[in-house]
Amino acid sequence: MTMTEGILHSDAVSVRAGRLHLAVHLPWYRSLPVSCLEAVEVTVDGARAPLRSVSTGGFTGPLADAVGSAAWWDLRDALDVALDVPAAFGVTHQVGLALAVRIPYIQQAPGVPLVQRATAQIEGTVR
Questions:
Q1: Which residues face 37 on adjacent strands?
Q2: Distance (Å, rounded) from C-alpha 1 to C-alpha 36?
């Protein structure tokens, strides 16, 4: 299995407070600072799903606020992505994910950090 294959598990889709949540796993072999989150884009049933917040390792907030966080995304923990999409238990959705995380200690060129990009698609039933 590659690092990007495990970012979305079959049980990744859930509902809380009537909104869809997605459990996203880190596509890297080490934990990373939450500030390394570059992009999280989700589609649900073919439509772009607006992000409400992301949450992991002591950080909860909009993706744009992650850049200033000192929290870490532990390799063993899922990033909880809260979506502005109504949800109900037992409904099945086609979910697409595009994720980008900056790897701060590997450079592609002087001063240009590596950005690990990963995509995944699952059919998930809301749990």
A1: 101
A2: 23
CATH class of 13-125: mainly beta
Query: Taking a C-beta distance cutoff of 8 angstroms, is the pair 20, 73 a contact?
Result: no
As given in the structure block, the two tokens for residue 73 are 């995304």
Domain spans, the chain: 13-125
Q: What is the pLDDT of residues 52-94, one digit of tens each?
A: 999 998 999 999 999 999 999 999 999 999 999 999 999 999 9
List all residues 6 or more positions away from 82 whose beta carbon is below 8 Å from its beta carbon.
Answer: 16, 19, 20, 21, 51, 52, 53, 54, 55
- Give the pLDDT confidence score for residue 5 in this predicted structure: 78
pLDDT of residue 113: 92
Within 10 angstroms of residue 56's Cβ, the number of other Cβ atoms is 22
